[in-house]
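User: Just a sanity check before I run the rest of the batch. Below are the structure tokens for the first item. I only need the designed sequence back.
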């Protein structure tokens, strides 16, 4: 009788234990909402942006290294026509695929300090941060001032480079970055500075620098070592003013030339 009683209790306890375990798993999943509950992991937005930036930069460097190895193997095998190779080399500086050095300027842009944000709760938050148009204004002014080469966050800017705001970060070549933003240009320092001073948009930005302490600092550089552009050179789409834009496909995606 006792043996039968123990078996009955065991049979009744197993489903109950499984039910409790299921409830615990469901509660944990609901509380986590798909996130990591371990406090040791950095799940803040800034941490995620920095982690993604490091990962993307590592992949870009790996891509550049493999591309360079392929080009070296092609040259060794003589698969590139010498005239074509010479032409490619002459265009590399203009395209931005080779490192360059020279004097120039660095412009650093920063959001308003935290105490200014705290002390101005009624001010539009958009007035207290650097936006993509601020970075674009500096870049455009430097190009207008005769910049020979340019980087943002130490990444080479080329003709297809796009700058886009996503939340409180700026995306460059598909990689998110947080402020401060550093824009560096190689060229005649006096002409570059004059172009910055003559920019109407930067003049408007200076008002917010005074009112809300947005960061705007220009530094003279006697010698700048600027890296080569290491991303893809494929142009995905383009549109001319006055013409209707139509979807296009990259030639490399279809195997064309």
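Assistant: Here's the designed sequence for the first item:
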């Amino acid at each position: 009788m006792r043996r039968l009683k123990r078996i009955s209790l065991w049979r009744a306890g197993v489903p109950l234990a499984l039910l409790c375990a299921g409830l615990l798993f469901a509660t944990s999943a609901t509380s986590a909402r798909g996130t990591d509950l371990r406090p040791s992991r950095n799940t803040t937005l800034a941490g995620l942006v920095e982690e993604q930036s490091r990962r993307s930069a590592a992949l870009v460097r790996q891509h550049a290294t493999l591309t360079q190895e392929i080009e070296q193997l092609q040259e060794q095998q003589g698969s590139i026509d010498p005239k074509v190779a010479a032409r490619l080399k002459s265009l590399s500086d203009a395209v931005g695929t080779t490192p360059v050095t020279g004097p120039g300027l660095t412009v650093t842009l920063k959001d308003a300090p935290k105490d200014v944000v705290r002390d101005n709760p009624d001010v539009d938050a958009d007035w207290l941060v650097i936006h993509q148009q601020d970075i674009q204004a500096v870049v455009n002014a430097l190009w207008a001032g005769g910049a020979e080469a340019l980087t943002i966050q130490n990444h080479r800017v080329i003709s297809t480079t796009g700058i886009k705001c996503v939340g409180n970060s700026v995306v460059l070549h598909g990689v998110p970055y947080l402020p401060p933003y550093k824009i560096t240009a190689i060229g005649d320092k006096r002409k570059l500075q004059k172009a910055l001073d003559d920019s109407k948009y930067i003049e408007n930005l200076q008002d917010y620098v005074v009112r809300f302490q947005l960061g705007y600092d220009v530094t003279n550089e006697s010698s700048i070592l600027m890296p080569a552009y290491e991303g893809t050179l494929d142009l995905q789409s383009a549109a001319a003013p006055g013409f209707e834009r139509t979807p296009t496909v990259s030639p490399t995606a279809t195997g064309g030339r």
